[in-house]
Amino acid sequence: MRKIVTLPALLLAALTATGCSVLEREYPAADPAVLVQRLTGRAQWAYDGMALPPHETVRPVQVTPGHSCHAGGLSIEKSLPDVVTFDLSWTVEDIPADVARAAEARLRRKFTSVGWTLTRDGNRQGEDFVEIGFRVQDPTTGDQFDLAWNDSTTSLFLSGYTPCAKVPPSAADTPSPKTWAPRTA
Description:
Elements: H1 2-17, H2 32-50, E1 61-62, E2 64-66, E3 83-92, H3 97-113, E4 117-121, E5 124-125, E6 130-137, E7 144-150, E8 156-161, E9 165-166, H4 169-172, E10 179-180
Helix pairs in contact: 2-3
């Protein structure tokens, strides 16, 4: 019995030492421009869906690649240099609680009405704090959006993320050359 256990252990060690990717996760290839366009389009759709009253201009932001995608399998801690997730985050400052609650409810309905799945409900209240928010995921693309507001900052935060995808190495470390800010009516 001891020899049978030793053989698989040796085989596993050999595969790991040679960099075998058989047991590592494969990510789909994607065009960074398509991911950026999808993310900024959905961010505008979300901004419009909140129907916020007039407010300070949202500062333009870049869609940036992030290296939080790991190999999985035997080398779960290893980050892959050409596999990224793109993200876009923006803030609207000085939003009162009643406006934030109404915007959160509208946007939650908008996302779920088109089939996005609620993955986190962030509405919480304690003796000395109030937090409003949620996370949704598109079951088709894997994209995610987070909305958050709290009474200590009174800022409304919206972040969007694409799932991990393999991109050309030149795009893996380069933010989108375009900046994005919501268009207002």
